[in-house]
Amino acid sequence: MGTRILAAVPAVLVVAAVCVLASATIGIAAESPATPRAKDAKPAGPGTLVVPDLRDQAFVFAKGMLEDEGYAWRVVGRVHGFAGNRVVSQTPLPGTRVQDTGSPLITLELARSPRYRQAGEPQDSSPYGGTAIRVVGYPPR
Fold first, then answer.
1. What number is the average pLDDT over the span 36-61?
2. pLDDT averaged over every residue in the chain
3. 35: which residues sit within 8 A by CB, 6+ positions away?
4. What sign does the dihedral 67-100-53-76 (CA atoms) show?
5. Average pLDDT of span 134-140
6. Which H/E stretch holds residue 90?
7. How would you classify residue 45: left for phi > 0, otherwise alpha for psi between -120 and 50, otherwise beta?
8. 71-80 residue pLDDT tens
9. CB 126 within 8 A of CB 66
């Protein structure tokens, strides 16, 4: 019986080591920002938001970024809001400084992705209503 326990010790140590490494990796990932900010990005100031660049992002990531930053969104055009579709244009343009009116509404135009099936119901608007866009200063070109 003693030899069975001794034979199991290396396996238990390997499993414990894997668990420690996995938890450390998850901890480091949780502390890191998901998307690095541009080096030349200036703080928006109180009550001001800077519209992120969503072009060429998968729709599922673009809408998550918008919701995380306090924006409402709506899909316009012929292509609907399925997760794998790509953002081809947005209004207002990236870098535009807007007044924080609650949930400033960003409109997205999408292109259909040939790689992913479009099944289920599309999501063409944020789960909450949007507010007016009020540009602060001049919009970027």
1. 75
2. 82
3. 65
4. positive
5. 80
6. strand 86-91
7. left
8. 999 999 999 9
9. yes
How many helices (H) does the chain have, and how many strands (E)? 2, 5
pTM of the entire predicted model: 0.65
Tell me if residue 99 falls in helix, strand or coil.
strand
C-alpha torsion angle, residues 128, 134, 140, 141 (rounded to 10): 90
Beta strands at 105-111 and 72-76: parallel, antiparallel or unpaired: parallel
The DSSP secondary structure of 30-88, one letter per residue, reads: HHS-SSPPPTTPPP--TTEEE----TTSBHHHHHHHHHHHT-EEEEESSS---TT-EEE
Phi, psi of 84, rounded to the nearest 5 degrees: -80, -10
Rounded Cα gap, residues 90 and 113, in angstroms = 17
Q: How confident is the model at residue 2 (pLDDT cuts 50, 70, 90)?
A: low
Q: Between the CA atoms of 86, 87, 89 and 95, what dihedral angle is there, to the nearest 10 degrees? A: -140
Average pLDDT over residues 24-43: 50
